[in-house]
């Protein structure tokens, strides 16, 4: 495991401490969880970008149309 030192404005550090307390976590655990979420989002974006390069635009639009149709049918 690595140790990372970061500099934050005092107000931001205090708000992170409050958030961690409200969730019953240490600041370390809170930052670890937030980092994992950010990295998962980044991985997903990169995966979609890689697939988009290989993808068939017409097929992708057809899938989105089907999803829209499904969502519209669920609202009626």
Plain-language structure description:
The protein has helices at residues 10-22, 27-54, 57-75. The protein is mainly alpha-helical. It has a domain at 29-75. The longest helix has 28 residues, at 27-54. The protein is elongated, with a radius of gyration of 20 Å. The termini are far apart.
What does the radius of gyration come to? Answer: 20 Å
**What structural class do the secondary elements suggest?**
mainly alpha
**Number of DSSP strands?**
0
Mean pLDDT: 89
> Unreliable segments (pLDDT under 50, ≥5 consecutive)?
none
End-to-end separation: 52 Å
Helix percent reads over 70%
Note the beta-strand portion: under 5%
| General form | elongated
Protein name: Ribbon-helix-helix protein CopG domain-containing protein
Organism: Aromatoleum aromaticum (strain DSM 19018 / LMG 30748 / EbN1)
Pfam family, one: RHH_1
Domain Ribbon-helix-helix protein CopG: 4-38
Q: Secondary-structure blueprint of this entry?
A:
Layout: H1 10-22, H2 27-54, H3 57-75
Short summary of the structure?
By secondary structure, this protein is mostly helical.
What key phrases describe this protein's structure?
76 residues; mainly alpha; elongated
